[in-house]
């Protein structure tokens, strides 16, 4: 898990952190808007130093990359968007604890990981 995470871009690691924070409070599978909100909740205090604010498109791209890389799986929850297209939902393949442990080694995210652990 550590090598998978360390090879990801910072923004994708933040998306993974957001999904892990939702998993920690049993709110997965989750759609991109929920993951985006979770990313903001985790990194608000660190936004300027870490990654700024991720828009929904960046989060959706990150979730797709994370699905290909392996730590995230796409889940069909049967929901669709307002225009009738499918809205993929995502969940972690590993436990939230395992993902947070891997992200904890990232100096840029160590404080954000602590925020998630305190909330869980």
Commentary on this structure:
There is one protein chain. This protein is mainly alpha-helical and 120 residues long. The protein is built from seven helices and two strands, in the order αααααββαα. It has helices at 2-6, 10-24, 32-43, 47-50, 56-69, 96-104, 110-119; strands at residues 72-75, 89-92. Strands 1-2 form a two-stranded antiparallel ribbon. The longest helix has 15 residues, at 10-24. The two termini are 21 Å apart.
How would you classify the helix and strand content by structural class? mainly alpha
Q: Biggest sheet, strands in spatial order?
A: 1-2
Give the rounded overall mean pLDDT: 86
Number of strands: 2
Quickly count the helices: 7
What form results from the Cα inertia axes?
globular
N-to-C SSE string, H for helix and E for strand: HHHHHEEHH
Q: Low-confidence parts, pLDDT < 50 over ≥5 residues? A: none
| Biggest sheet details | 2 strands, antiparallel
Helicity range of the residues?
A: 55-70%
Tell me the radius of gyration.
13 Å
Q: Give the end-to-end Cα distance, rounded to a whole number of Å.
A: 21 Å
Percent in strands = 5-15%
């Amino acid at each position: 898990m550590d090598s998978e995470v360390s090879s990801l871009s910072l923004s994708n690691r933040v998306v993974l952190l957001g999904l892990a924070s939702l998993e920690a409070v049993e709110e997965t599978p989750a759609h991109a808007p929920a993951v985006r909100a979770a990313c903001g909740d985790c990194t608000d205090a660190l936004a300027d130093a870490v990654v700024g604010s991720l828009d929904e498109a960046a989060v959706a791209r990150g979730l797709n990359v994370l699905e290909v890389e392996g730590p995230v799986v796409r889940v069909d929850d049967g929901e669709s968007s307002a225009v009738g297209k499918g809205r993929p939902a995502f969940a972690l393949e590993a436990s939230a604890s395992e993902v947070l442990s891997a992200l904890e080694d990232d100096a840029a995210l160590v404080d954000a990981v602590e925020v998630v652990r305190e909330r869980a």
